[in-house]
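Supplementary Methods. Inverse-folding protocol.

Structures were first reduced to a discrete structure-token string of length 266. This string, shown here, constituted the complete conditioning input.
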């Protein structure tokens, strides 16, 4: 009989991408204009990892999903009002800055510390293959190394776990192809791409059950100092946009292509 799985998902909040994000210099380093006022969402890749974790937990009765989230405590509380309604989970929070300029290694160290403080070691550590705010693409690998997990797969779209805890993953590689790997046992770290699951609908009952544990977890969230590492930022700005519009009629496809090439070269 297959045993329950302990699945840990690393995920943090990012500014809602529908908002205008303008980088500015602050006394603490680079940041976003009115960052504290911007609405936040769960990082899209981390959200995919969370939904995949919940789906996997359903196949193993007694399995548990723990979301380890790093971010400002007040904004995490607002975020969990929505996330808690999606899937059954427990929360382990770290009260620290979370933004596009924080150092990936410092972030990973705090996440690994939070995972090591959990009652049981994880069978799987899930996370996004990248981040919508930073896109370093290395944070989860740093976490796996800190935990001593040697089996790491990134940009995964499919995971199948057998009753004997062997598993098969499909990783995205170059050329729009997949690399299929099979491992004989756990633990493992999985960096998810988009997977194959839709966003679960909101379930108020699930939200109420989750919030009983979420609020105490937020209250005792340890503070951590996550900075920009050894990077010195001289300037951060929104790329300038330029638009040249030309209206012409009765041009052949070849002439249109030639004019586009000339415009790009200019």
């Amino acid at each position: 009989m297959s045993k329950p799985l302990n699945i840990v998902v690393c995920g943090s909040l990012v500014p809602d991408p529908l908002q205008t994000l303008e980088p500015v210099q602050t006394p603490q380093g680079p940041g976003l204009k009115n960052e504290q006022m911007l609405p936040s969402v769960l990082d899209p890749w981390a959200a995919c990892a969370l939904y995949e974790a919940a789906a996997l937990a359903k196949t193993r009765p007694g399995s548990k999903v723990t979301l380890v989230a790093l971010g400002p405590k007040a904004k995490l509380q607002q975020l969990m009002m929505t996330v808690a309604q999606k899937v059954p989970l427990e929360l382990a929070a770290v009260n620290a800055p979370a933004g596009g300029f924080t150092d990936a290694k410092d972030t990973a160290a705090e996440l690994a510390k939070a995972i090591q403080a959990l009652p049981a070691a994880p069978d799987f550590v899930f996370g996004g293959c990248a981040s919508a705010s930073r896109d370093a693409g290395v944070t989860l690998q740093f976490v796996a190394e800190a935990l001593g997990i040697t089996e790491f797969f990134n940009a995964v779209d499919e995971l199948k776990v057998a009753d004997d805890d062997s598993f098969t993953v499909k990783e995205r590689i170059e050329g729009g192809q997949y690399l299929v790997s099979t491992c004989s046992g756990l633990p493992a770290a999985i960096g998810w791409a988009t997977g194959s699951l839709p966003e679960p609908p909101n379930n108020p009952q699930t939200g109420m059950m989750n919030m009983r544990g979420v609020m105490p977890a937020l209250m005792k969230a340890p503070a951590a100092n996550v900075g920009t590492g050894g990077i010195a930022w001289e300037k951060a700005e929104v790329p300038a946009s330029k638009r040249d519009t030309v209206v012409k009629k009765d041009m052949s496809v070849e002439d249109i292509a030639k004019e586009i090439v000339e415009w790009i070269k200019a």
